Amino acid sequence: MAAAGAETMRVAFHWGNAQLERDGPIDLSETDRIVERASARRIEVFPHIIVAPTWNRAYSYDPHAPPGDPEYLRPYMKVLIERYGPRGSFWAEHPGLPRLPIHNWQFWNEPHLPYQWTLPRGISWSETYTAQLKVFHLAVKENDPTAKVVLGGLTNSSWQALDELYYNGVKGYFDIAAIHPYTQRTNGTVELVRRFRAVMRRHGDGRKPVWATELGLPASRGRSKSKNKLQTTDRGMARFLEGSYAALARARRKRSTRVDRAYWYTWASRYRGDIFSYTGLFRYAGKGRPAKRRAFGAYVRTARRLEGCVKTSAGRCR
How many of the other CB atoms lie within 10 Å of CB of 4? Predict the structure, then answer.
């Protein structure tokens, strides 16, 4: 990733995996491994907090249900920030690593989609998400006032979902808005950002940053039985990657379309199953090394053009 030009990686921190019992210990061995490997290569880790523990799910029958009591986010975030934040014990224990403390924390992923934030019929996703984001915001800021809270990424009619969140009082409880501009057209990514930012301006948040915390196009055409129109070929995915990053880079000149970060979804995937398992720059290859896809070359070319240098495996310009 470092040699390809990646400078930051978005990764899920699964609360449910880290804390198996109410008031029990919080196991950070998995996240320690991620942060250690990334920082050694000068890659900033950007976590999204997701998956409530079974003991704290609003509806225990569904793994994607929101937390039952969001107050338990406070001790969890305290442990994470005390470990990986600016004064984190992780950095004291690893003085030989490049110091890349985590400053940005995202709460959940696509909470407007029922399979990501599962609720019984009749209960509002936007009301419940806003209420829990308020607790998450407090949990972050009380442990690191300089840290940034990132809104859960919104996709599809993202601007409408964002407007609904504002209606339910989300203003003031995030520092960075997040969009997942899935579209078939490279210039469509910029159009979706424009609509998204228009809603932010209308609610007085026009100066806040926007990140594309997912961006991609699945190379599943001819491989999946899905009728979803958001499908292409390997060649099409590579063209889309180069074109969409170029379009977003040009769009940064205007505040109405500016995006400060764009994360490709995803680095490696199975290339079987649902269409989004065909979005990886690599395909998992059993016990062997992951196999490069055509889009990987497009990613490297794009990174070198936009960063102005060729990176080493330690994340430095040659």
Answer: 17
Q: What is the pLDDT of residues 245-298, one digit of tens each?
A: 999 999 999 999 999 999 999 999 999 999 999 999 999 977 778 899 999 999
The answer to whether the CB of 223 falls within 8 A of the CB of 200 is no
Q: To which residue do tokens 């950002």 refer?
A: 193
% of residues, the chain, pLDDT over 90: 96
For 283-305, give one letter per residue: b (16+ CB within 10 A) or e. bbeeeeebeebbbbebbbbbbee
Its pTM stands at: 0.97
Residue 61 has pLDDT above 80, yes or no: no
Mean pLDDT of 195-207: 98
Low-confidence winner among 52-61, 149-158, 249-258 (lowest mean pLDDT): 52-61
The stretch 108-132 carries a mean pLDDT of: 96
Helix axis angle for 234-251 and 294-307, nearest 10°, is 20
Angle at CA of residue 124, ends 118 and 129, nearest 5°:
70
DSSP state of 164: H
Which sign, positive or negative, has the C-alpha torsion 292, 295, 298, 300? negative
* pLDDT value of position 260: 97
**Both tokens assigned to 173:** 């409880």
Does the domain spanning 8-307 belong to CATH 3.20.20.80? yes
Determine if residue 307 is left, alpha or beta; phi over 0 gives left, psi from -120 to 50 gives alpha, anything else beta: alpha
Burial of 116 (0-12, 13-18, 19+ CB in 10 A): middle
Sheet holding 261-264, edge to edge: 154-155, 177-180, 210-215, 261-264
Q: Taken in order 51, 148, 262, 194, is the CA torsion positive or negative?
A: positive
3 state DSSP class of 163: helix
How many Cα atoms sit within 13 Å of 61 on the Cβ side? 2
Residue 249's SS3 state is: helix
> Could you tell me the strand order of the sheet in which 44-50 lies?
8-14, 44-50, 104-107, 148-150
In the chain, where the domains are located: 8-307
